[in-house]
Specification:
Blueprint (H helix, E strand, L loop, with lengths): L4 E4 L2 E4 L6 E3 L6 H20 L3 H7 L3 E8 L10 E7 L6 E9 L16 H12 L8 E5 L4 E7 L14 H22 L2 H8 L4 H29 L9
Antiparallel strand pairs: 1-2, 3-4, 4-5, 5-6, 6-8, 7-8
C-alpha cells in the first residue's frame, strides 16, 4: 500500500508514476471522469457476479475508490492492464485487484476452438485447472462495446520467486527441480498423466530434448536483445530512460 498509494485529504489514492502507473485522474478530462468511474463500478459489479458466492459476498463489502493503468510484464505487451483500489469499512481497510485484458489463445489457430467463448473465462478456468490452489479472487468480465475480455485477480497473491541471478550451483539445481515438479503437476492435473508418463518413459530422451530446446531458446533471446539494442543505437526505436 505504501508503494502504490498515498493519502490525500484523508483518502487513499493511487500514486502517479508515469509511464508505469497512470491513475484515472491523469488520463481523462474532468468531463469524462464520472463516466469512466461509473464504467469501472459496473465492471466491478459484473466481476463479482461471476465469482463463487462466498468470494462475492466478501467483496461486496468493498467499493472501488481509484483506478489506474499499470505496465506489467512482457507477456502482456499490447494489452490493457490496470489496477483498482478498493476500500472496505474505512481507509485502513484497503485492497488492490489487478485487471488484465485476455485475448484469444495462440493455439486456437492450430487446435479446435476453446469451449469458452470468453477469453477471460478461459484464462481463469485454465489457471484453476492447472494450479493446486488458485487465487480465490480470479474472475472475468467482458466489455461488449469494445469487444474486450478481461480477467481479474489479486495484485499481490503472495507468490514466491527465486533470485536466479545470485545463486549457487546447488541452489539452482534445487530451484530447477522445484519448477519442474510444479510444471509436471500442472500437466498431470490438466492432461492425461498416464499417457504423459508413457510418452516420456524412464530414459533421458525427453530430458535431453528439453535441454536442447532451452539452450536454443536462450541463444535466441540473446540475439533478439542484441537486435533490440542495435535498433536503438540506429535510432529506429525511440526509448526513454526513467
Amino acid at each position: 500500500m505504501d508503494r502504490l498509494a498515498k493519502e490525500v485529504k484523508g483518502k487513499y489514492r493511487i500514486k502517479s508514476e508515469k509511464p508505469l502507473i497512470v491513475p484515472l485522474r491523469d488520463i481523462s478530462d474532468k468531463d469524462d471522469l464520472e463516466m469512466i468511474r461509473q464504467t469501472v463500478i459496473d465492471h466491478y459489479t459484473n466481476y463479482i457476479e461471476n465469482l463463487p458466492d462466498h468470494v462475492g459476498f466478501l467483496l461486496r463489502n468493498y467499493r472501488p475508490v481509484d483506478y489506474a493503468i499499470k505496465v506489467v510484464g512482457v507477456g502482456s505487451v499490447g494489452t490493457l492492464c490496470s489496477i483498482i483500489l478498493l476500500e472496505g469499512w474505512d481507509k485502513k481497510d484497503l485492497f488492490f485487484l489487478q485487471i488484465k485484458q485476455a485475448t484469444k489463445s495462440v493455439l486456437e489457430e492450430y487446435l479446435n476452438p476453446s469451449k469458452y467463448e470468453l477469453s477471460g473465462e478461459r484464462v481463469v478456468e485454465g489457471q484453476r485447472l492447472m494450479q493446486t490452489v488458485s487465487d480465490i479472487f480470479l474472475g472475468w468480465t467482458t466489455d461488449e462495446k469494445q469487444e474486450r475480455h478481461y480477467y481479474w485477480r489479486q495484485l499481490k497473491d503472495w507468490k514466491g520467486s527465486g533470485d536466479v541471478e545470485n545463486v549457487t550451483e546447488s541452489e539452482m539445481k534445487s530451484y530447477a527441480d522445484l519448477r519442474g515438479k510444479t510444471l509436471a503437476r500442472a500437466h498431470a492435473r490438466s492432461g492425461d498423466p498416464v499417457a504423459i508418463s508413457g510418452y516420456m518413459r524412464k530414459n533421458e530422451k525427453f530430458d535431453k530434448a528439453i535441454t536442447v530446446f532451452a539452450e536454443k531458446y536462450a541463444d535466441q533471446t540473446v540475439k533478439d536483445y542484441n537486435m533490440f539494442k542495435q535498433k536503438i543505437r540506429a535510432d529506429k526505436l525511440e526509448v526513454k530512460e526513467q
